[in-house]
Write a structure and sequence with these properties.
The structure is a single chain. By secondary structure, the protein is α/β, with parallel strands linked by helices. The protein folds into two domains: 239 residues, 3-Layer(aba) Sandwich (Rossmann fold), CATH 3.40.50.720; 131 residues, 3-Layer(aba) Sandwich (Rossmann fold), CATH 3.40.50.720. It is built from 16 helices and 14 strands. A nine-stranded mixed beta sheet has the order 3-2-1-4-5-6-7-9-8, sandwiched between helices. Strands 11-10-12-13-14 form a five-stranded parallel beta sheet. Strand 1, helix 1 and strand 2 form a beta-alpha-beta unit. Helix 1 crosses helix 3 and helix 12 crosses helix 13. The radius of gyration is 26 Å and the shape is globular. The relative contact order is 0.07.
């Protein structure tokens, strides 16, 4: 389907749907905006924007001038559309459980009008698995067509920032996932046509941007992906999880600064001035990646000092305690991942040779302070593993003199520290001929798909 031949239906004309409909119309697409509110439809019919936001009002006014945007409450008017963008609310109920009623209703509305080759994109925020387990079955039921084969189903989680004069629907980078098939490319082509940015693959983003974070001590900000770019995720579930997780990260951080406010009250501090002072630090602001554990004199120690001071003043900081508990537990979690993979290959930990690569707490430093290596090694030792250790930056804990020696006769490798030279040495080894059958990537630094091709069981932390 050529881009000019597409007619767009936007289901839901709220804070997400209306700017998106206006953007599509301004890009030359004929757009039908479907909303259940007669007030919204009447307002737009009269040339008025029902959302009080200067940027949105300008977008809508421009779109209405093109004559490409029409609002309606009559579902029959979307029958000749071939791209359906679902932007209905996805709230929670009184028990804080997800309310899928509006989304299910949208699927029942769209279903009877679906045709072979149509594209349906869910922009509404959903939890991972919703498109496959809820949306696809409903569309199949009401259309008689097969999702992913007869029509394309994708998820592009909405990203808006109401009241922001710079970031708007036309330039915010987006992520996209789809059911297996051609849907991911068709959806990416469509979004690129309205956003005007590049189409990226999440692996390209990882390969091009993540090394820069490391080389600049995490001082580079992720917004350096191109404006209006569309990043294709590995799966529709990964795309669903992006929105749920990015806002959960925000919520946890907001909760934490609220806890800092309570600590500041009992310690007679000014938390706003302190946060402004913290903001002057040019690195260490994320993004943050999971790993086998958190070490170093700062992160592993400073929160304990703040917790102690707060407790002495009469307030117990729950977020700090929870963060320390989770981070201190990552070596045990890493070993549990290792144990699962070894079990799949028929090996117990006891008596199995396991190579530990890296002992320093951080990449490309020779500092062992509070390194998770010690706890991980002790756990494996208590379980009876035969352990070999090599670190290319600090030698005090080494049991061998090289990576090759470390993995000799080992059935499993656990990466604790991803020193540049250490990983380079590992990459030069023919692992498929080494006898290694399991790799646990405690720093998510390897290309897991390439390792799996060598008939080696691979797991990262969270991947």
């Amino acid at each position: 389907m050529a881009l000019p031949d597409r007619k767009i239906a936007v289901i839901g004309l709220g804070y997400v749907g209306l700017p998106l409909a206006a953007l599509c119309a301004r890009r030359g697409y004929p757009v039908v905006g479907l909303d259940s509110s007669e007030r919204v439809v009447a307002s737009l019919g009269a040339g008025k924007c029902h959302i009080r936001d200067a940027a949105v009002e300008k977008m809508v006014a421009d779109a209405l001038e093109t004559g490409n945007l029409a609002a309606t409450s009559d579902a029959a008017r979307i029958a000749d559309c071939n791209v359906f963008l679902v932007c209905v609310p996805t709230p929670v109920d009184a028990d804080n459980d997800p309310d899928l009623g509006p989304l299910e209703g949208a699927c029942r509305t769209i279903g009877p009008h679906l045709k072979s080759g149509d594209l349906i994109v869910i922009e509404s925020t959903v939890f991972p698995g919703t498109c496959e387990q809820v949306v696809a079955p409903l569309l199949r039921e009401f259309s008689g067509l097969e999702p992913g084969a007869d029509f394309h189903l994708a998820h592009c989680p909405e990203r808006i920032n109401p009241g922001d004069p710079f970031w708007h629907s036309g330039n915010i980078p987006r992520v996209l996932g789809a059911l297996p098939g051609a849907g991911i490319d068709i959806a990416a082509e469509f979004y690129a046509s309205i956003l005007g940015g590049d189409i990226l693959d999440v692996r390209e983003v990882k390969q091009s941007l993540r090394p820069k974070f490391r080389e600049t001590a995490e001082g580079l900000h992720i917004s350096q992906v191109p404006l209006g770019s569309v990043t294709k995720m590995r799966s529709i579930r990964d795309a669903e999880a992006v929105k749920a997780m990015e806002n959960t990260v925000r919520d946890v951080n907001i909760a934490f600064v609220n806890e800092l406010a309570k600590i500041s009250d009992v310690l007679e501090l000014d938390v706003v001035d302190i946060i402004d002072g913290m903001a002057t630090k040019p690195f260490g602001k994320g993004p943050f990646y999971p790993g086998a554990g958190v070490g170093g004199h700062c992160i592993a120690v400073d929160p304990e000092w703040l917790k102690a001071a707060s407790k002495r003043a009469g307030y117990f900081p729950e977020m700090i305690q929870l963060a320390r508990t989770i981070n201190n537990g990552m070596p045990e979690y890493t070993v549990s991942v290792l144990q699962d993979l070894l079990n799949e290959r028929g090996y117990p930990i006891k008596g199995t040779r396991i190579a530990i690569l890296g002992t320093a707490y951080k990449r490309n430093v020779d500092d062992l302070r509070e390194s998770p290596f010690f706890k991980l090694r002790d756990i494996l030792d208590k379980k009876g593993a035969e352990i070999s250790v090599f670190d290319s930056w600090v030698t005090s804990q080494n049991t061998v003199g090289s990576v090759d020696e470390c993995i000799q006769e080992a059935k499993a490798i656990v990466i604790v520290t991803e020193h540049s030279d250490l990983i380079e040495q590992l990459s030069r080894i023919e692992l498929s001929n080494s006898g290694v059958e399991v790799i646990v990537d405690g720093r998510n630094c390897l290309e897991g798909e390439e390792i799996l091709k060598q008939d080696i069981a691979y797991r990262g932390i969270g991947r």
